[in-house]
Amino acid sequence: MPFACPSPSAANPVTKVSDLMALRTTELGAGPHALTTTAFGYGAMSLAGAYGPIDEPAALTLLQEVTGRGITFIDTANIYGLGLSETILGRFLEGRRDDIILATKCGIEPKGEAGKRSINGRPEHIREQIELSLRRLGTDYVDLYYLHRPDPDVPIEESVGALGELISAGKVRSIGLSEVTAAEIRRAHQTYPITAIQSEWSIFARDVEEYVLPTCAELGIGFVAFSPVARGLLTDGFDPEGLGENDARHKFPWFAPEYLEPNHQVANKARLLAADAGIPAAGLALAWLFTKAEGAGLSLSVIPGTRYVEHLDELLAGLDGQLSVELVAALDALAEEVRGDRSFSPQWVSGGREGLLPRASGK
User: Fold this and answer.
1) In this predicted model, what pLDDT tens digit does every residue of 208-244 receive, in sequence order?
2) What local confidence, expressed as pLDDT, does residue 53 receive?
């Protein structure tokens, strides 16, 4: 393969710094509301069975494996399993709360099923939901509290003002926003300092690169990437026939019957590049993200979710990798081949409201 490695060997386009070092950290945000955490976090939506069943004992064992690998950043939300993810985390956190950087979210009505929920960014709803989350989590504060989606019927300044009040009350240490546009970020940041923006970003999902990431870099706001392996597509073990009946991915266009196999074939190209580089596909996907973030001057943490310990190690293989310019370019090109939008509703994500999804999804 025509890839050049920065160091130490031109034969391998991925350079591991060390397999034994502690996980590197990143600083999200700036000033008094900055949050230092591991650059690799764990997305706890999987604990609620979104991608397949997992019982509580298995979930607690998995969390032990997560933290045993040095991962201290755990991300959840009130809607994951309608509180189930937070409840399981609350049991896990007993006796170890001070060791974990904990993030959760509000702003999507915690009822109904994915794809059919409504958004609620009213201050009274935010104040209500933090109390419920704290009770389930068994703690009196969270380190990072997100507005899960901006409410089109509530000025974002009002929602962010309510989040800021929670910091004054000692219930929240920093605040973030999820799936917001660049304009929404600027308005919010003028109201109260925003520590982190969370959105989907991966080799396949690229719309945030146009406006959101440059805005974060300019304002000194950290970025937290969810679904960094494209909801499992960018992994070696992905099986198009293996999605269960209740798998949440059925609601996303990438996994629709007419798009799933073509997207699986695009992912195969990434798997081949990963094999040539001697790294799992999931690890390559993360190494690509960190390479892109460094080039953009962006503080990044990724929060993949999984139910399997072996997947953790595949992901961690990319945490300290450096990719050649040629390999990054080859991976960049794959987004244009992806079929379908990344969300079930363009208005549900920042790229849809900024008019970027059609181009980003290969249409």
Assistant:
1) 999 999 999 999 999 999 999 999 999 999 999 989 8
2) 87
- Whether 150 contacts 348, CB under 8 Å: no
Please, which residues have CB within 8 angstroms of residue 135's CB and are 6 or more apart in sequence?
none
- The verdict on whether omega for the bond into residue 110 sits within 30 degrees of 0, i.e. cis, is no
Contact present, 77 and 148 (Cβ < 8 Å): yes
| Contact partners, residue 10, CB within 8 Å, separation at least 6 | 4
Q: Is 240 helix (H, G, I), strand (E, B) or coil?
A: helix
- As annotated, the active-site residues are 80
Mean of pLDDT values over 30-52: 93
Cα dihedral: 275, 276, 278, 284 (round 10) = -70
Residue spans of the domains in the chain: they are 25-360
CA distances from 103 to 48, 112, 235, 266 (A): 16, 22, 25, 33
Q: Which residue has the tokens 């970025």?
A: 223
Packed helices 212-219 and 182-191: angle between N→C axes, nearest 10 degrees: 30
Q: Which CATH architecture has domain 25-360?
A: Alpha-Beta Barrel (3.20)
Q: How many residues does the chain have?
A: 363
Residue 12 has pLDDT above 70, yes or no: no
pLDDT tens-digit readout, 84-103? 999 999 999 999 999 999 99
In whole angstroms, give the CA distance from residue 198 to residue 115: 19
Query: What pLDDT sits at residue 186?
Result: 98
Q: Is 107 left (phi over 0), alpha (psi -120 to 50) or beta?
A: left
pTM of the model: 0.92
How is residue 355 written in tokens? 């008019």
Distance CA 105, CA 143 (A): 11
Residue 304 near residue 232 (C-beta atoms within 8 A): no
Per-residue 3-state assignment (H helix, E strand, C coil) for 161-227: HHHHHHHHCCCECCEEEECCCHHHHHHHHHHCCCCEEEEECCCCCCHHHCCHHHHHHHHCCEEEEEC
Q: How high is the pLDDT of residue 181? A: 98
